[in-house]
Amino acid sequence: MYLGLDVGTSGLRALLSDEGGNVIGVADASYGVSHPHTGWSEQDPQDWITACETAVAALRSAHPGALAQLRGIGLSGHMHGATLLDSDGKVLRPCILWNDTRSAAEAAVLDGTDGVRDLSGNIVFPGFTAPKLAWVKAHEPEIFQRIAKVLLPKDYVRYWLTGEFISDMSDSAGTSWLDVGARDWSSQLLEASGMRRDQMPELVEGSAPGGTLRDALRQDWGIRAAVVVAGGGGDNAVAACGAGCFREGEGFVSLGTSGVLLAAKGHYRPDPASAVHTFCHAVPQTWYQMGVILAATDCLNWLSRTLGQTPATLAERLPSRIEKPSSITFLPYLSGERTPHNDASIRASFVGLDIGDGPAEMTQAVMEGVAFALRDCLEALKGTQTDLTRLLAVGGGTQSPYWVETLATVLGIPLDLPDKGEFGAALGAARLAMAATGADLASVMTAPPTSHTIDPRPELAEAFDASYDRYRALYPKMKELMT
Question: How many CB atoms within 10 Å of residue 335?
């Protein structure tokens, strides 16, 4: 049996799988996020441990015999978080999360430092880990002086599971401390933010062993033999493993809280200026590139709260098939934007609202705005010689046929919708556990069965292209008005 643990922003998911990839059981445990100041986003690392204990206890209660046969654990986690430990392994302060923007000034300084983009392969975004440490150095110097180790969220869970300081290349690629081409820590990048190599964990590939479950936990959980903990990876890389996306030309688009358009790459060819993320994959000698938008279904959730109607009710106001683009343009920058603008200060707007417009028209505009933002990501990826002929579509937003057809038409790419079932990061983590105990990568990293495919509407392509051009023209105008 194999256990996949996905440390998400709002909760932890534990998935128990057999060696054939069949899901035996799933358990979830939630926790909160603290926002003590504007732009701040923090979490207590103990919440991850408590959630893990809760989820594993639920699996043990429901499937005691299966859990007793556990051979491997894989880890996935939200990226970029700064978990700071002292020399005794104690947490020094709450973890600063991926969506925390307090270090925008420090990120700009690091991004402008010679060699940083070249070595890291990426823009230094405010959400990345290195600028967070530069912020701590400037604003919490007494804490900075006590830092012995910096761990990413899933790796703090690993530390609790194994007692070892280990990370993997895919998660570490989002720190701005990793030489992403060489797949190793860079002394030059570390020095740029005042850090040292001894403060970093050991690095392993995501599909390689990355520690062994502590005997005390193994006995508490009723497990009979030694358990390998795989290197694991950052959430998007591990989700790609769950979706069977690790070969050149394979990719997925995610309509989740944020939006992601990801393509697996068999070579390293970064393009930082495009604001495309270029990271190591969770499997050896493989990378991935992705465009990221900060708000996808979050935009519909915001509209839902504003109008006092559930997201499902808003989506049901639209027909099952698209007819024409909206006359309203929505810029989905509720929390700023990453790809392609790298702009933490830009904000969302509706342009072209009419007195006769209501919830249905606003919902259509929101869905189109998110689709246009993901088209921005696709255009940026094209600059890295990425050729995607079809994509797997995942995330909560795919429950709306209207939204999926809009996205397929805006991207000009067929979107495959998977059958219902588990295929996300928790399953990907379990698959990495299988690989770490000897399973062949190609045999376990398979794509989920396709339920059906949504094709683009070529007769509407010209109209949507014109709407996209209008959308693109609005960003610089809004930026000028806001500065």
Answer: 20
Give residue 335's pLDDT: 86
* pLDDT (0 to 100) of residue 423: 74
Scan for tokens 């290195």, then name that residue.
130
Cα separation, 246 vs 406, in Å, equals: 26
Q: Are residues 409 and 323 in the same domain?
A: yes
According to DSSP, residue 334 is labeled B
What's the N-to-C CA distance of the chain in angstroms? 56
For residue 18, give the 3-state DSSP assignment: coil
Q: What crossing angle do the helices spanning 359-382 and 297-307 adopt, rounded to 10°? A: 160
Q: What is the pTM of this model?
A: 0.90
The H-assigned helical ranges of 127-275 are 129-139, 141-144, 153-162, 169-172, 187-192, 215-220, 235-242
Which residues have C-beta within 8 Å of that of residue 381, sequence separation ≥ 6?
A: 261, 263, 274, 276, 289, 290, 291, 388
How many Cβ atoms are within 10 Å of 421's Cβ, its own excluded? 11
**Domain-embedded: residue 292:** yes
268 shares a domain with 171? no
Domain that holds residue 401: 244-422+449-483
**Do 134 and 230 share a domain, yes or no?**
yes
Nearest-angstrom CA–CA distance, 252 and 263: 7
The residues that are catalytic are: 235
pLDDT: which is higher, 338 or 96: 96
| 159 and 22 fall within a common domain | yes
Question: pLDDT tens digits for 428-466?
Answer: 999 999 999 999 988 999 988 899 999 999 999 999 999
What average pLDDT score do residues 255-274 get? 91
Return binding residues for substrate: 79-80
Work out the average pLDDT over 310-333.
96
Q: What is the mean pLDDT of the chain?
A: 95
| DSSP secondary structure string for all residues of 18-62 | -TTS-EEEEEEEE---B--STT--EE-HHHHHHHHHHHHHHHHHH
Q: Which residue has the tokens 């379990």?
A: 430
Q: What count of other Cβ atoms lies within 10 Å of the Cβ of residue 55?
A: 23
- Residue for token digits 């405010």? 126
DSSP state of 343: B
121 contacts: CB under 8 Å, gap ≥ 6: 173, 180, 181, 268, 270, 272, 278, 279
Percent of the chain with pLDDT strictly greater than 90: 86
Q: How far is CA 133 from CA 41, 102, 224, 321, in A?
A: 15, 11, 41, 48
Q: Which residues are annotated as a binding site?
A: 79-80
Q: How far apart are CA 196 and CA 33, in angstroms?
A: 29
Q: Can you say how many angstroms the Cα of residue 122 is from the centroid of all Cα atoms in its chain?
A: 16
Q: Worst-scoring range by mean pLDDT, 63-77, 182-196, 380-394?
A: 380-394
Q: Looking at the domain assignment, is residue 375 inside a domain?
A: yes
